[in-house]
Amino acid sequence: MNTGQGCEIKAIEFVFPQKVVTNSDLSKEFPDYNFSLFEAKVGIKNRYVVSGGETALDLAKQACDQLFKNIDQSNIDYIIYCTQSPEYILPTSACILQDLLSLKTNIGALDINLGCSGYTYGLTVAKGLILSGQATNVLLVTAETYSKYLHPGDRSNRAIFGDAASATLVGECSNEGIGKFVFGTDGSGYNKLIIKNGGGRNSYQTNADLLSYGTDNLYTDNHLYMDGPEIFNFTSEKVPRIVNDLAEINNLKMPQINQTICHQANAVMLELIRKKCKISKDSFYIDLADGGNTVSNTIPIALKRYSQGLDQSETVALVGFGVGLSWCGGIINLKHKL
Amino acid sequence: MDRSAFLTKFTETLELEDGLMEDTNLKNLDDWDSMTEMITIAFVNEHFKTNLKVTDLSVVTTVGSLMELIGIENFDN
Question: CB within 10 Å: which end of chain A, N or C, has fewer?
Answer without folding.
Answer: N
